[in-house]
Amino acid sequence: MRLNEVHNIYFIGIGGIGMSALARYFHHLEKRVAGYDRVSSQITDQLQQLGISIDFEEAVQSIPSSFLDKERTLVVYTPAIPNSHAQLQYFKKNDFTIKKRAEVLGLVTHDTFCMAVAGTHGKTTTSTILAHLLKECGVEFTAFLGGVSENYQSNYIHTGSGVTVVEADEFDRSFLQLSPDVACITSMDADHLDIYGEAQALEDSFRAFAEKIPSDGKLFVKKGLPIAGQTFGIEDEADFTVQNISIHDGTYFFDAETPVSNETGIQFNQPGRHNLLNALVALAMAAQLDIPLGRLAKALSTYRGVKRRFTYHIKTADLVLIDDYAHHPTEIDAVYEAVRELYPDHRNLVVFQPHLFTRTRDFVDDFATSLSKFDEVLLLDIYPARELPIRGVTSEWLLAKVDSKNKRLVSKEELPIVVKESNAQVILMLGAGDIGIEVEKVKEVLAYAS
After folding, report:
1. Spatial contact of 430 and 352, defined as CB atoms under 8 Å apart
2. What is the domain range of residue 61?
3. Which of 62, 310, 376, 382 could form a disulfide with 406 if both were Cys (CB 3.0 to 4.6 A apart)?
4. Which parts of the chain sit beneath pLDDT 50?
């Protein structure tokens, strides 16, 4: 089945961040789009406002009749959907064309100049920065993002079709479906061991991804990673480097040194040195389209971030509330370092919702070490996502390993009151589950108290 011959696209899990971007893309092409999701959300609300039909009942009877023609319908699903899902089973038994999201993304980008961002951390931020740079510099492109850009209030940006910007997701080896022309690898920390089994298998998949880049393409890798490519780093001997960092009123200023040209006094408004690396490699990738570094630097200064990536909900002299997607020990460490750099004299409190039983099991000691750095720790129950419970793997188990006198397990119901009673001045809410919903409740209580 060729995508240009498809009339109907039905998404199982349409409310997912990656799935919804594809749904927007096909709707933009004036295809008939519909889908299922388990619960309504801001994303599904926005899709429905576009005229996309979405049902929240798993029953086969909920599928619109126009999508029951298997000759004209493509079914797209995400690995988060269980194989037992009633609609997925119906489509399989009736021989519909069914593809995973990654396969469809690969088909969409195959005949374009594909710019792919890979790495266990930093994909969404880096790809969103890259998309912003290209838009500000007048490039015709389409971007499929893993988060909602604060600049454009969307995870799908379209100004043309010649270039595509995508996240190259290592989960389920999805990125091997892509055909990248320019790519980067931001990190290769062990993760998704429920899929890979061991860290070496994860590394091997990144090498396989790197080998997909053609001889006339370009690969950028963070300095120190065991893969050949042009390197990027902070104040080291990399090919692309950040130098002379300073902070003024919460904003970074730095110089960028590249093999072609240098630029001084670049302004960047996102916190954390890990984000400086993300910005640097986005600049390097965008420069491959022959955009002058000075023009890219000017565009970078107007970048406003991604929702749930160090997003401020309260920011006053006395109280700060930050929401972040961090769900891996390395990401938690990055958030901690950013907070310590920005608020060195403020007492902090972290609320963390572990994501997946397998990830908690595989990295429990690393999670404990990362969380122990904060002044106060509150843990929510593990968010299961696609998994069933694992005996003995609980938030209580993780909490027992955290080295802190100020720690406790809390329910979602009591969380706002517990946070309100704390004397912390900087409050962080971290996790990849549904903790984002709880942020608004905490914000309301704190705002009322102040």
Report:
1. yes
2. 3-101
3. 376
4. none
